[in-house]
Amino acid sequence: MSSQIEQYLADPFLADLYQEIRVAGPLRSAQVDITHACNIRCQGCYFFAEDLDRFKAPKDESVFDAFIEREKARGTNYMTVVGGEPSLMLDRLKKIYDNFWLVVVTNGLRKIPYEGFENLPIAVSVWGDHKTDTNLRGNGKLDVFARGLKNYKDDSRVAWYYTTTPGNVHEIESVVEQCVANGNYVGFNFYGDISQAGGSLDHRRGFGPVCDEINRMIEHYPDRILLSSYVAQVVATGNLYGDKWGHESCCTLTVDHPKNQERLKNGRPYNTHFRVYNPDLKTIRRCCAGDDRDCANCFECWAHFSWIILNLERHLGSKQEFTNWLTTMYLFYLSNRIIDFDKGVKNVPEIHRRLSCLRTPHVDTPPTRLEAAELEDLVSESL
């Protein structure tokens, strides 16, 4: 394996990416719901769909301080901070910021101040253009997207976490244009219709056209899109070299949760440190999306990043495949500012150029979780 990697790293650009990651070192990650409270109710939010707000965040600050110390002692150095709405708990968010690498996911209604959070990676949610986003997140009344744009105007810490829906592909260009014009970066997520609303939200329609539009946005804004064509393909198809996405392959599972013990014995890789904490900071859950989430409607990009990253050996068959893997890992480190962001973001256009062979428009029926070409075939046909 090492000889193959050395061969591919003869390419100076790939060698530079690899070196930046190696200098930063490995991540030992955890996820925490920093609060059970939220100031909106989004349609299809996993947190409230599984009643995770029943695990109340402790009022005693010493309990939170003890949690920080336990995680440091456990060796955690990176946290995904969600909720609830993290901006409602700025004091506790600051303590995490001061002790770990992290990313915080916020709905954008309350601005996380710059002072004290100067290098904080902020993922601001948006679920569609103003009308769609208002219907899904603002109860048909509150324009959450507009509020977020105003709060984070020209804020270079922000990458919009755009959760796309199969039936609203036509909105992607407008949303991306507004986010870029606002002086921010853009990432993508894919909507799982856990509330079974159907119609434009039905993930069973497939994300092929969504990927096509994401690829078009990459062509238009190669310096602003922080998700690669390769990651989008993996999420949309649910395939990684013949392995199907699901509980048996997911890598971001709480390692000491009873529901995961059989999975961890099946030989597939997993994050050996990962743990997800409910808001009470005591109980843990099976995975980032709950105890009982149906993996067939889970399209969480962060989890799929890990799936790719922890399957390095599968990506050693060619230089292109290794490039697919290395750029995935690099974009994860970059988005989370584990490496120097201002320096690293200059590599993003070249990363997208290196993956341009994957940006072939889907024809006829888009790939779905129910009927998808194997990813390895898709990649090999592109080489």
Structure description:
With 383 residues, this protein is α/β, with parallel strands linked by helices. It has a single domain (26-382), classed as TIM Barrel (Alpha-Beta Barrel). Helices cover 37% and strands 10% of the residues. The protein contains 15 helices and 9 strands. It has helices at residues 2-8, 12-24, 46-49, 61-74, 90-99, 130-137, 144-151, 172-181, 208-220, 229-237, 301-309, 319-335, 341-344, 348-354, 375-382; strands spanning 29-33, 78-82, 101-106, 122-126, 158-164, 185-190, 239-240, 243-244, 276-277. The strands form 2 sheets. The chain has a 7-stranded parallel beta sheet with strand order 6-5-4-3-2-1-9. A two-stranded antiparallel ribbon has the order 7-8. Strand 5 (158-164), helix 8 and strand 6 (185-190) form a beta-alpha-beta unit. Helix 2 (12-24) packs across helix 12 and helix 4 (61-74) runs parallel beside helix 5. The longest helix is centred in the C-terminal third of the chain and has 17 residues, at 319-335. The chain is globular, with a radius of gyration of 20 Å. 45% of the residues are buried.
